[in-house]
Amino acid sequence: MSVEHSDDIDPKIEEVPADSSPDGEIFDLWKDGKHVAYVVIPAKTGKRHTVVGDLGDAHKALGVLNSGKPE
Q1: CB-CB contact of 35 with 28 (8 Å)
Q2: What is the strand order of the sheet 49-51 is part of?
Q3: How do residues 3-62 score in pLDDT, each as one tens digit?
Q4: Rounded to two decimals, what is the model's pTM?
Q5: Is residue 55 exposed (0-12), middle (13-18) or buried (19+ Cβ within 10 Å)?
Q6: What gap in Å lies between CA 47 and CA 35, rounded to an integer?
Q7: In Å, how far from its chain's centre is CA 42?
Q8: Contacts of 24 (CB under 8 A, 6+ apart)
Q9: Residue 5: its pLDDT value, please?
Q10: Where is the sequence biased in composition, kind Basic and acidic residues (predicted)?
Q11: Residue 21: beta bridge partners?
């Protein structure tokens, strides 16, 4: 089955849990069947941050964001 999108309508972005720990949560973002980024939600702030890269980069970002050090 195929779904057409007009140029002014963004295709649905799917958020899939990738990892969860006491440090926070990481979600994998998929668009049109392709991985595009990770969403990192540190336990310290609870704010959402987008990380482009691999799961290791997302874990590093989670550590930095929980440390309180400048990004």
Answers
A1: yes
A2: 13-21, 24-31, 34-42, 49-51
A3: 444 555 456 888 999 999 999 999 999 988 899 999 999 998 899 999 999 999 999 999
A4: 0.78
A5: middle
A6: 21
A7: 11
A8: 40, 41, 42, 43, 44, 62, 65, 66
A9: 44
A10: 1-15
A11: 24
